[in-house]
Amino acid sequence: MIIKFILILTISLLINSVFAQPFLTGVSGNTILINYCKTHNLVSPKSTDDTLKLPFFDDFAKPTIYPNNELWLDKSVFVNTNFGDNPPSIGVATFDALNYKGRLHDNVGSNAFLSDTLTSKLINLDYLPSDSVYFSFFYQARGLAGNAPEVQDSLILEFKTGNINWTTVWWAVYDTTHDFKEVMIPITDAIYLKNSFQFRFKNYASVGGNSLPAWSYNSDYWNIDYIYLDTARVYNIAIDDYQCMLENNHSFLKNYSEMPASHYNFDKSEENHKIKYHYKNYSNTIINMNHRFIVSNYSASIDLGNENVDPNSTIDIMLPFDSVLYQQPGADTIEYKIKFYLRDKGNNIDDYYKQNDTAIYFQNFYNYYAYDDGTPESGFGLAGTGTEDAMLAYKYFTYKPDSLRAIQMYFNPTRNNYTENLPFYLTVWDIDEGGPNNIIYQESTSVPIFKDSLYQFVNYKLKTPLFLTDSFYIGWKQIEDELLNIGFDNNTDSKNKTYYNIDGSWTQSTFEGSLMMRPVFGKKLPLSINNTKISNIDINIYPNPANNIINIEFDKIINNGEINIYNSTGYLVKKEYLIENSKTINLSDLNNGLYFIKITENSNIIASKKVLVIH
User: Fold this and answer.
1) What's the CATH number where 436 sits?
2) pLDDT tens across 335-365, in order?
3) Which of 66, 155, 443, 579 is most buried when burial is the number of CB atoms within 10 A of its CB?
4) Residues of the chain with pLDDT under 50
5) Which is it for the CA torsion 552, 554, 560, 561, positive or negative?
6) Which residues constitute the domain of residue 183?
7) Is the link from the previous residue into 465 a cis peptide, with omega within 30 of 0?
8) 8 Å CB contact between 336 and 325
9) What is the tens place of the pLDDT at every residue in 489-519?
């Protein structure tokens, strides 16, 4: 999907002179990195004496947020599967205007400044010029996030060996095209053919909207993928004999990314019986591939059979999952980890498979409906003269008659949290053919609230629940004419559900993407677990972050104890019983994210901790 951005505002333009209209902006921080830094003591990778051997390869398919410290010396770029637009393989390294903690650099401005670096460890390149040593990679300006680099911005590649200073060998500047481009550089200079070779990428960025706090956002994205350094290579063949997934799958539902479990059980109209997986054979020969998928609730993998894949071809596999997503009767929260992967015919199912041969999707059923995937690549808002009474409405349909209890929203943080002082009226409308009709709920002044976490939505609770039976709109009426900058997901498209009213009539949005705004249903909202009284007891939870297992230890024996694990929306996702002073818990069936652990003894809360799960 190609996202078209309209950049109208210039840095010197004052907001109250802009003609009223919707705007698409960037984000001012990366909450995944911000939260990770809060829960970790980050130490930069050490420059060791053990020099790497060829081949050097990284396609950033490993599910981490920082570069692999076995290959790299720094951590300022963001490794992800969200920001690349049609990458050569799943996963990219993103360069932007944020530091390694996920926040804007202190020296941001409209002038270009040095932002991110990606530096390799020492590499043994003690070869001859005749050994056909090539360095190759793919790069992309912008991708699916933010906006394209400006004229003053650049991406630079440098080489170094021994005591010789870093030397620029390649660079890219502003480009109106945004496809991934292939770069191959022969290394024939004897200066670099040593056992102490290094390379690094770095970018110069500038920040959009710097003169106005509400418009100060991250921008100038570059994506890097498929870095490959080796001997005996052929020019113009950057990828050879390689099969990989190209993207993670999206929702297993027809229209929504997530929905309430009870609503799904009530009406299975959202059930989608065919899911498309996208992968490619870069080999020059036909490859017979075996396709399998695993659902976290199942004990065995499901074999989809084999298929011949033509050379250098991209193929879509339609995955039937009629019987995969079964629902547990009465369950409020259900989470599925669905893993689709490729294997050459004849490989044993227990063999290790590469990360780039695998696509993972977490299909969740919580107490809300959502179009977005939970990650804001951009921001959306209404601004300009006349927008002090502007309205933004987002259409939803409930499959089960139920009570609307709250509206979840994620607002992009702005410089110094400027927008947290901008009030709005939380509003719900009923349906009409031309868009929202009558206001059926409106609450006195609300303001944007910010949370630094992997799931950073805030519940705006309705003072009086609304019983809804079909379609409705949620959103707000503005009081100020400044940009509120709600999160905007570019990987899903719900523009036909997004309406705004500036001049007295409703207009459908033209921006491809989804607002990070969700209706919350149910009999009651989950209790907060952040304000409970905790007794004086020592508790140790490790490792944290956790992969599949956590260990919990206490300084005393626990009698009649329970360990309750809640997701970030406050719902109980796992319960364990405790009768000693330690417990090991398997978390492999939980999604990546932040969880809250509450321990009770004889029904009294004795401890509460947070744990970050990263598979």
Assistant:
1) 2.60.120
2) 777 777 776 544 433 333 366 777 777 788 8
3) 155
4) 1-18, 47, 210-216, 299, 345-353, 453-455, 526-535
5) negative
6) 44-230
7) no
8) yes
9) 888 899 999 999 998 889 999 999 999 999 9
Bond prior to 543 in cis (omega within 30° of 0): yes
528, part of any domain: no
Number of domains making up the chain: 4
d(CA 113, CA 202): 11
Same domain for 395 and 515: yes
Together in a domain, 205 and 76: yes
Is residue 146 within 8 A of residue 96, CB to CB? The reply is yes
Does residue 244 lie in a domain region? no
Domain boundary, last residue among 334, 365, 396: 365
pLDDT value for 532: 36
- H-run or E-run covering 572: strand 572-578
* Bridge partners for 601 per DSSP: 561, 604
Measured CA to CA, the distance from residue 458 to residue 368 in angstroms comes to 12
Question: Are 472 and 503 members of one domain?
Answer: yes
| Whether residue 55 has a cis bond before it, omega within 30° of 0 | yes
- Domain CATH code at residue 176: 2.60.120.260
**pLDDT tens by residue, 524-582:** 664 443 333 344 566 788 888 888 899 888 767 776 778 888 876 666 788 888 766 77
